[in-house]
């Protein structure tokens, strides 16, 4: 198969969909890989590393789209890319269709086959191509939180791990899923006094088993959150209710109970945030202060660490990309249900029910395209 990897053009997106190592794995299996010049530079992969891996470099984004049977990307296509996508071309990337109607219509019009990273799903309902970004964001939440607790950055001026004779900072994590668990691990490793809250009791049991002694678990409800909020220095929002907006667990009135310089990191901002006063921010201007409380609400946290994020993402996507390249999308999706669930739009038809429902579009069963 001919695989094309364009350079991401979304503002400040430095990740790339394929590493030189990934390109080599595809080339080894007899596929042709075309990389747009400079596509990997933001993640630390220069063109010559791709060439050494057996890929070819193309000078323009147009040339990549023109040549490829399968496009591998990171972010959802944005407007200038809509026209470049060809009929019958397979596009394997994040789409997040339900959150942007114009993209959905553009992909229907393109006649392409759109396989979305975010809906590839395992039998246990986990989302293997979302997990790596949650791992990055969870770990980063503590790194950023620790930084913004510093006084010059408007924080309380408390060191996360304390020092001998001085108590460590108190970290509260709302949600014990992938983001929350990774945040708890980092905070615990830095010596903080950590509490992780969830509504899922089996999950709390599991966390209690695997976490070190400086991590406590606590049932999440309004009463318990109100009790803990005034005494914690760093609060991380890491809640997710599948298919719904995040609930506001920290309400505006709770800010008055917090100490000045408390830091709130709302990782769930991409689902509306679990802190009422959260609004999306960017890496250029990541924080703002309300009632003396510092808010960090960057919607694409992994974008700040493109080297780690690219490797984490491609470790997860490459096995699927190899399967798609080896078998073609139809056979690969027939034989692998995880990939089948990634299909959202096929040649003008919406085949993912939630996307059809979101925009009141006709829904076509995916099986009709697999005959
Ligand atoms: N900002 C970013 O850059 C970024 C990056 C990756 C993920 N995210 C977001 O982070 C959020 C968490 O993702 P995840 O992968 O950890 O999800 P996950 O499904 O693994 O975990 C979510 C957890 O929240 C718990 N939960 C649900 N309701 C709760 C409540 N009322 N109180 C406490 N816990 C509750 C669930 O039981 C679950 O354990 C998502 O919104 C995701 O989109 C953001």
From TrEMBL:
Residues 149-297 form the Alanine dehydrogenase/pyridine nucleotide transhydrogenase NAD(H)-binding domain. GO terms for cellular component: plasma membrane. Its EC number is 1.4.1.1. Transmembrane segments: none annotated. GO terms for molecular function: alanine dehydrogenase activity; metal ion binding; nucleotide binding. Pfam families: AlaDh_PNT_C, AlaDh_PNT_N. The gene is ald. It catalyses: L-alanine + NAD(+) + H2O = pyruvate + NH4(+) + NADH + H(+). Mg(2+) binds at residue 323. One of its GO terms (biological process) is L-alanine catabolic process. Substrate binds at residues 15, 75. Its cofactor is Mg(2+). SMART domains: AlaDh_PNT_C (SM01002), AlaDh_PNT_N (SM01003). NAD(+) binds at residues 134, 198, 203, 220, 239-240, 267-270, 298-301. InterPro entries: Ala_DH, Ala_DH/PNT_CS2, AlaDH/PNT_CS1, AlaDH/PNT_N, AlaDH/PNT_NAD(H)-bd, NAD(P)-bd_dom_sf. The keyword Magnesium applies. This is Alanine dehydrogenase. Residues 4-137 form the Alanine dehydrogenase/pyridine nucleotide transhydrogenase N-terminal domain.
């Amino acid at each position: 198969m001919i695989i094309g990897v364009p350079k991401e053009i979304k503002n400040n997106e430095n990740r790339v969909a394929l590493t030189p190592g990934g390109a080599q794995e595809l080339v080894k299996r007899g596929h042709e890989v075309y990389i747009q010049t400079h596509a990997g530079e933001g993640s630390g992969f220069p063109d010559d590393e791709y060439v050494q891996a057996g890929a070819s470099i193309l000078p323009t984004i147009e040339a990549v789209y023109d040549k490829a049977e399968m496009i591998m990307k990171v972010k959802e296509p944005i407007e200038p890319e809509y026209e470049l996508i060809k009929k019958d071309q397979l596009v394997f990337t994040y789409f997040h269709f339900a959150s942007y109607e114009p993209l959905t219509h553009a992909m229907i019009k393109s006649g392409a086959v759109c396989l979305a990273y975010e809906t590839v799903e395992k039998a246990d309902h986990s989302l293997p191509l979302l997990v790596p970004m949650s791992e990055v964001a969870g770990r980063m939440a503590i790194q950023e939180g620790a930084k913004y607790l510093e006084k010059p950055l408007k924080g309380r001026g408390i060191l996360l791990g304390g020092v001998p004779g001085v108590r460590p900072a108190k970290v509260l994590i709302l949600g014990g899923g992938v983001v929350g668990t990774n945040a708890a691990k980092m905070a615990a490793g830095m010596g903080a006094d950590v509490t992780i809250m969830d509504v899922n009791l089996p999950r709390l049991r599991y966390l209690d088993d695997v976490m070190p002694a400086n991590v406590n678990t606590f049932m999440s409800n309004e009463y318990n959150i109100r009790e803990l909020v005034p005494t914690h220095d760093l609060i991380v929002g890491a809640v997710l209710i599948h298919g719904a907006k995040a609930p506001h667990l920290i309400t505006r009135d709770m800010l008055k109970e917090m100490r000045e310089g408390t830091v709130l990191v709302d990782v769930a901002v991409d689902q509306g945030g679990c802190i009422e006063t959260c609004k999306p921010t960017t890496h250029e201007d990541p924080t703002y202060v309300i009632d003396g409380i510092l808010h960090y609400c960057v919607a694409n946290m992994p974008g700040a660490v493109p080297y780690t994020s690219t490797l984490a993402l491609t470790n997860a996507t490459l096995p699927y990309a190899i399967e798609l390249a080896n078998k073609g999308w139809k056979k690969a999706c027939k034989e692998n249900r995880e990939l089948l669930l990634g299909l959202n739009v096929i040649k003008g038809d919406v085949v993912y029910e939630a996307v059809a429902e979101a925009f009141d579009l006709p829904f076509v069963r995916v099986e009709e395209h697999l005959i």
